[in-house]
Predict the 3D structure of the following.
Amino acid sequence: MVTKENTAVSTLVQEFNLLVDEPLKKYTSFKIGGPADLLAMPKDKLELKKLLTKSSTLNIPVTLFGGGTNVLITDKGIRGLVVITKFLKSKIHIIQSNLQGKTIYAETGDRLSKVCLFAIENSLSGLEPAAGIPGTVGGAIMMNAGTSSWDISNIIESIDVLDPKTLSFKTLKRKELDFSYRQLNQSGIIVAATFKLTKKPGKEIKKIFKENLIKKNAAQPVFAASAGCFFKNPSRGKSAGELIEKSGLKGKRINDAMVSLKHANFIVNTNNASCEDILLLKQHIQKIVFKKFHITLETEVRLEGE
Ligand SMILES: Cc1cc2nc3c(=O)[nH]c(=O)nc-3n(C[C@H](O)[C@H](O)[C@H](O)COP(=O)(O)OP(=O)(O)OC[C@H]3O[C@@H](n4cnc5c(N)ncnc54)[C@H](O)[C@@H]3O)c2cc1C
């Protein structure tokens, strides 16, 4: 545990305005999570770099979140420093243009929905399937967020990362990135990204975007406390949601953790669920689905903490 009594740590706390023993449930869409020893919300890339340089000298472990919409944090919370990147944002802008389309630049803390809106306003197509996906640009790239037929990796041209070992910034082109289903298989702190989009009439883009949003809102419990789809879809056959529904688990509860009645792959926190409640429900779902279908469901939501 990182303690304030340590002089070097208390200097860090003062210099970067860190919060101490801050409950993380406030920063996640699941509304679950114990305290972070230290919590930082840097406002720009240089502050982030300075903070990480000092934490590394003090051997303080660092955990990163963007919007906190795909994470489940343990009840004991996270030791060391938690960095929330959602304030690392700038003006989304066009950096390159040709006859077919344009490349746009966004920083890691920009909300994905804001990038989608920028694309619509500038008659640029490519982000319509992202309608309704919450969270930040950095989180979406790390999770390779998407739908059953589209991933954000489809439109990425490059990402800027801060290398946690050398603490230097570098740009990685799309061909240097290794994406798979719901993950980027590389470490590094994403600080910005560029997206390659194609020209299309704004009205058409807006129509498709709206249709996708309506479909998503009708099928998923988007206003409940959750972290989105809890399990990854198996590579073949039925989706995780179908397997859970066909196992008769819709509405199954452990305390305030419940399998959503609207979409069986969403575990929702109906009031005051703990991480333990969610994990017990997760294990129950995995057991029943395995008994019925001989398929082991893997979690998509990332578990963080002690
Ligand atoms: C109602 C709801 C609907 C959802 N629908 C979808 C959907 O349709 N499709 C989909 O794919 N997902 C969906 N999700 C899940 C989630 O919104 C996405 O995965 C989202 O892209 C995560 O972004 P975030 O900023 O919240 O990431 P976080 O949850 O903050 O972080 C996710 C992971 O990325 C890492 N990370 C975050 N920022 C950075 C960074 N800058 N550099 C390096 N690593 C970083 C974190 O350490 C963590 O491991 C949904 C979630 C909810 C609550």
User: Anything to note?
Assistant: The two ends are 11 Å apart (CA to CA). The pocket of flavin-adenine dinucleotide is lined by residues 29, 64-71, 85, 108, 133-136, 138-140, 142-143, 145-147, 189-190, 220, 222, 226-228, 302 (CB under 6 Å). Residues 144 and 182 are 5 Å apart (CA to CA).
